[in-house]
Design brief:
binds ligand G3I
Length: 366
């Protein structure tokens, strides 16, 4: 049966049980050996995704093929951040994002927009503008630029990222940020309303981390979601970043289950947006490390799936070859820069135990 891969994948056609064979324009089998996870997920109307960077796709054909085989969506790991786009005053650099857009379009993939508004990675000249009273103009210009440019291929947006940080002791547990200082606690609502006005059909997401470990933070995130829903702000889902730890840190299962139930009761979807596992022990055999990583994810999914599976299942990277957790700057547990083995594929693009855990969790969904 010949089905054009682009149509098949971009429309997320239901797979009737068997994997439908498809071929690309050159007649090559467009369904690589790594497509079974994606199609198992599509059968349950779940998208599988990964964070990538344009340089990884340009410079590594094996990786680019693995991404298009395994995923039905990609998310820019850093090329949609303000620090990349507005790095130079007066210049709007979307070259990286444009490449990712073209790659997604030609591979029949969708994109996640990440992030529209974040406290981090704001260039100093932009911070000056925010502090000088141009916060709303800067926010509207940015939203118009990126939402307008990429249209419906980006059907899921992290509208606000990581706005909760109770340690800053602000109202509602909101984080001290240039946006908070300039626009007050309602900046989150404003951002969602603005995003909806430009992306009428996209999934609008509030995205944050550590909810699976920190019940206090989870409580503030839930309170934020309740306020957004009560005030009819157009939020559709919460993104659990899901940066997990294979270091003995314990998941708060009871708190996480309650959180997921409350989110569902609010009528919101749950997404896994940045799944990976941070290691601390690098001097033990790979098979032991991979089994530990798989166990951490299996443990986590038991709570997440209890109140219905996530609509999007996105890894923060796909192969260990490009994991941010191998960089000492981002992973204080890894000062020597060892390869962190916290993703579904190793640095040679081979599946690991955690791949099987995720595949069976998805296959087990009724
Ligand atoms: O390598 C490029 C260089 O070629 C380029 O000229 C330069 C210009 O900015 O950037 C360099 O890339 C850096 C990239 O990491 C690769 O090392 C970016 O500067 C740097 O911003 C980027 O850091 C990213 C970080 O967010 C901040 O943007 C990490 O890759 C990324 O994994 C991390 O992701 C965050 C999520 O967005 C939010 N949740 C937490 C997660 C982990 O911190």
């Amino acid at each position: 049966m010949h089905i054009d891969r682009r149509r098949f994948l971009s429309q997320g056609l239901r797979v009737s049980g068997a994997i439908v064979l498809a071929h690309d324009a050159e007649g090559r089998s467009a369904i690589g050996s790594e497509s079974e996870l994606k199609f198992a997920a599509l059968e349950k109307r779940i998208s599988i995704g990964a964070a990538v960077a344009s340089a990884q796709l340009k410079g590594d054909r094996d990786f680019a093929r693995l991404v298009s085989d395994t995923c039905s969506r990609i998310v820019p790991e850093w090329e949609m951040k303000w620090s990349t786009i507005y790095r130079m005053p007066g210049i709007v650099d979307l070259s990286g994002m444009d490449y990712l857009y073209e790659y997604a379009k030609s591979s029949g993939l969708r994109l996640r927009g990440h992030p529209l508004l974040w406290h981090s990675r704001i260039p100093s000249h932009i911070k000056v503008g925010i502090e000088e009273g141009r916060a709303r103009t800067l926010m509207a210009d940015h939203f118009r630029t990126v939402i307008g440019r990429y249209g419906n291929l980006i059907d899921s947006w992290d509208v606000v990222n990581e706005a909760i940080y109770p340690e800053d002791k602000h109202e509602y547990g909101l984080r001290e940020s240039p946006w908070f200082r300039a626009l007050g606690p309602k900046y989150v609502e404003e951002a969602f309303i603005l995003a909806r006005s430009m992306a009428p059909n996209a999934r609008l997401v509030y995205n944050d981390y550590n909810i699976e470990y920190d019940r206090r933070k989870a409580g503030y995130v839930l309170a934020l979601l309740r306020r957004l829903v009560k005030e009819k702000a157009p939020v559709d889902a919460v993104g659990l970043q899901s940066h997990l730890w294979a270091t003995g840190k314990k998941i708060d299962h009871a708190g996480l289950s309650d959180f997921c139930k409350e989110v569902r009761d609010l009528g919101l979807d749950i997404l896994i947006t940045e799944l990976d596992v941070r290691e601390r022990k690098f001097d033990i055999p790979f098979h032991e490390r991979d089994a530990t990583v798989a166990g951490v994810v299996e443990d986590y999914l038991e709570s997440i799936f209890q109140y219905g599976p996530p609509k999007e299942f996105v890894f923060w990277g796909l192969s260990d070859r490009y994991s941010w957790l191998s960089k000492p700057d981002y992973n204080p547990e890894n000062p020597r820069g060892y390869l962190n083995r916290g993703l579904p594929f190793d640095d040679k693009m081979k599946r690991k135990d955690v791949w099987a855990v995720i595949y069976s969790a998805i296959k087990s969904i009724k």
